[in-house]
Amino acid sequence: MGLCSHMFKILRRGKYFVLLVLLLSVLAWIATFSGETEKAVLVSPATTLTLVKEDSLRDKVNTLTTAPDRLNTPPQKVDCPQESPLLQGAMKLSFESSLKLKDVENDNKGVIEGEYEPSDCAARQSVAILIPHRNRERHLLYLLHHLHPFLQRQQLHYTIYVIQQAGDATFNRAKLLNVGYLEALKDYSWECFIFHDVDLVPENDHNLYICDNQPKHLVVGRNATGYKLRYKGYFGGVTAMTRDQFLQVNGFSNTYWGWGGEDDDLRIRVELQKMKIVRPPADVARYTMVFHKRDSGNEINKDRMRLLGRTPQVWRKDGLNSCSYKTLSVERLPLYVNVTVDIGKPQS
Ligand SMILES: *[C@@H]1O[C@H](CO)[C@@H](O)[C@H](O)[C@H]1NC(C)=O
Ligand SMILES: *[C@@H]1O[C@H](CO)[C@@H](O)[C@H](O)[C@H]1NC(C)=O
């Protein structure tokens, strides 16, 4: 009898077990289903692309921007304040010839592989800083020395990318910046991009490295020009555009080899989209330009006026959607990501 009742109990439990399994499967099915709809809602309103109709490019950027984020931020942080309490205003900059990379690394322990985010609050924007580079190690060192603490005082989440042109063909700043944009989006869905010359160091941390609802030009003045705008409409040196603004103008032209013109070309693209360039106040948007001679391999681009004339006709076909290059290496160094690329050479 003891055996019988034991068997009976097991059978009864078995029935409950089957019921339990059924119930769990139903729950699991509901969970996956609602998870999918949630994902679908999150993906659909991605980029509000209006004028560039290249779907393949849009798809490419969308897949890039939905790449998994490398930092697993705990969700609990409160937003950083509207104005960072750490800002110091105008600073006296130093350019010590004895400065070493190791010193800058030691001063910036919170930076890991070029990336930083505030530990005690959620940054208001995630910003990729793109610096085109070749043979300017000293300038880069000074810039890193000043820029890292500057960005940390602004309480930003950022990564510094150095886009290194391989080989010795004529320099192409604009194409390197297109590459930087595409490569940085493989790491994280940055909402804002700062296109930054290596020899310009910001003097005042109220010059915020965040994006606006219009493209922003950050260099009103520099010591080399008596802190005056170089010319009306100047849009070079350091500029800030959102991911979508840059996509909307199809990025920079890839065809400007040598010094000059590519920044005016970007201004024309921005104006064609009826966007308006904004600037911070002149007393804030000040830079020190570290002295250098014109590099060999970056001679004045004599063709720039002709190129500028055809921008309205060619911008849709010449830009992010036609930027072909070969990534040779991506080195994640303590203070920056070094993306080294072969971008080809000018067509004769
Ligand atoms: C601007 O300041 C930098 C750093 O002190 C210096 O190297 C450069 O010569 C200055 N330029 C001018 C035109 O004063
Ligand atoms: C970037 O990496 C390339 C390839 O290793 C190297 O030649 C170049 O010096 C590096 N540039 C910087 C600024 O670290």
UniProtKB/TrEMBL annotation:
**What protein name does the entry list?**
Beta-1,4-galactosyltransferase
Q: Does the keyword Metal-binding apply?
A: yes
Q: Which reaction does it catalyse?
A: N-acetyl-D-glucosamine + UDP-alpha-D-galactose = beta-D-galactosyl-(1->4)-N-acetyl-D-glucosamine + UDP + H(+)
Domain spans labelled Galactosyltransferase C-terminal: 216-293
The organism of origin for this protein: Parambassis ranga (Indian glassy fish)
Cellular component, GO annotation = Golgi cisterna membrane; Golgi membrane
Q: Which GO terms describe its molecular function?
A: metal ion binding; N-acetyllactosamine synthase activity
Q: Which CDD domains match?
A: b4GalT
Keyword Glycosyltransferase tagged? yes
Instruction: Tell me its family.
Output: Belongs to the glycosyltransferase 7 family.
Compartments, record wording: Golgi apparatus membrane
Metabolic or biological pathway: Protein modification; protein glycosylation
Quote the gene name from the UniProt entry.
b4galt4
Q: What does this protein do?
A: Responsible for the synthesis of complex-type N-linked oligosaccharides in many glycoproteins as well as the carbohydrate moieties of glycolipids.
The residue ranges of the Galactosyltransferase N-terminal domain are 80-212
User: Its topology with respect to the membrane?
Assistant: Single-pass type II membrane protein
Query: Which keywords does the record carry?
Result: Disulfide bond, Glycoprotein, Glycosyltransferase, Golgi apparatus, Manganese, Membrane, Metal-binding, Signal-anchor, Transferase, Transmembrane, Transmembrane helix
Q: Where is this protein primarily located? A: Golgi
Q: List, in alphabetical order, the GO biological process terms annotated in this UniProt record.
A: carbohydrate metabolic process
This protein's cofactor list reads:
Mn(2+)
Pfam families (UniProt xref): Glyco_transf_7C, Glyco_transf_7N
**E.C. designation(s):** 2.4.1.-
